[in-house]
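Below is how a single chain appears once it has passed through the pipeline. First comes the sequence as given, then the structure the pipeline wrote out for it. We keep one example in the README because the format questions we get most often are answered faster by looking than by reading.
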Amino acid sequence: MVNHDVVFVGAPIEEGAGRRGCVMGPDAYRTAGLAENLQALGHRVTDIGNLQPEDAHTEKVPNGTVKNFHTVAGWTRSLYKTASELGQKAVFPVYLGGDHALALGTVAGQSLAANRLGKPLFVLWLDAHSDFNTFDTTESGNLHGTPLAFACGLKGFDGLLGHPLSHPVAPRNVEILGVRSIDPKERELLVDCGAGVRDMRMIDEMGIPALLAPFLERVRAANGLLHVSLDVDFLDPGIAPAVGTTVPGGATFREAHLVMEMLHDSGLVTSLDLVELNPFLDDRGMTARLMVDLTASLFGRRVFDRPTRSF
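Resulting structure:
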């Protein structure tokens, strides 16, 4: 097993979501023993603490639907800068969220870093939602539903960074796995762009390996870097209740661990988001501990090494 220099980046952003609580997410991962679990596997862990958003209050709000634009733009700029720097170093960044709006900065920053390294960035989006709305199509105005559209270079997002996105992710390099809630306008954008979408019915009918393995082979064939964005609501709310956007019928405990184990075996993952953990909604920390266990599987914990848990 390859031992990584892992860097934790806290991003206690909750302004992209529709309810409060994700601000506590980064510290919940720390309290649940994320660093200790990875260190036990032989990895070196550095925690640079929680970032602060930059000041973006001079930007014009795109429209009346968009909520908390200035704060989210500030977080985007801070995370974009950090991700573009870490992505060029021999480290493995783990971004501790915070709601999924943090990926506005992390994915875009990792894509810039990959370009500077001369490699394409691929994105595996583990989520109940496709998060492919633009400022013009969002119905809720919550910006945690827009990161993939921004990262793929769709129009109308210039105010987030104060300039156009210079190195967007190619939509064909995006794979959304486990989705089960897509807005009609998002569906049109996804079809037009050609992003990969694998919903829960496909998982039920074909299984995780048949869907994930071909994507990983494409990453390998392109000599690409792989960013994984893991949303708590990828999981079934019965095992992961601590999320404000619960959608029934999510991934099971074993399906989720299988995804992580396959990702580890591939050796392709270079950066990770852990998002939408809302400790205010958790039951005795079970969701935080499950997310820590899944991360440990991504970093090499095998089935027979996993500790027995009771809740």
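The chain has one domain: 5-303.

See the next section for the split statistics.
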